[in-house]
Amino acid sequence: MEINVNWRDIDTVLLDMDGTLLDLAFDSYFWLTLVPESISQRRGISLEEASQLIMAKYQAVQHTLNWYCLDYWSRELELDIRAMTWEMRSRARLRDDTLPLLQALRASGKRTILLTNAHPWNLEVKLKQTGLGQHLDLLLSTHTFGFPKEDRRLWQAVQQHTGFENLRTLFIDDSEPVLDAAKRWGIAWCLGVSNPDSGLPTKTFARHQSVSDYRTLLGALTL
């Protein structure tokens, strides 16, 4: 399916990190495999019991800032999540199509802003591991503002901080609820990522256009 993005009408590109610029496989392994295994060993319960316990805790705070907060999960799970993140840092990697996209955006004069719900420690570790930061104009964690991307107050704060114009901004994210929040705030262009995790099948978006390879967008961008 051809993606409808009119680059001439876009000055600013807001980009999610995990699943959008980085392969979500890191986070899938960390939260769905490593953490349950650690809980199972630490508490002497089965892996299935640990997984069920953790999923219930995840679902209780989904779409809130705590869901993304490493310090919250360290307290809640009694694990050193920061240390575990650092130990697993070698698993963090860029998507294959990330650098071609960011290089083309920079060459065409678009302003690129990373806008992630990731905790600042998580962000720092992944930036050190991947070198992603050098390819972006501005790096923002929503923890700085006190609200996740699912909350309209975040969008107001980020707009005040960066001065982006709603009608001339493209936002790319792998979460449909997050894209919904951006659209409700008034972001004119919203694009989903249908293959955020290299280890999982592609997914479909019900309310937004989606892309599986940014390189398919570059022809129109460089015209």
From TrEMBL:
The keyword Ion transport does not apply. It comes from the Bacteria. Gene3D superfamilies: HAD superfamily/HAD-like. GO terms for molecular function: metal ion binding; phosphoglycolate phosphatase activity. GO terms for cellular component: cytosol. GO terms for biological process: DNA repair. Keywords: Metal-binding. CDD domains: HAD_like. It holds the Pfam family Hydrolase. This is GMP/IMP nucleotidase. It comes from Mixta theicola.
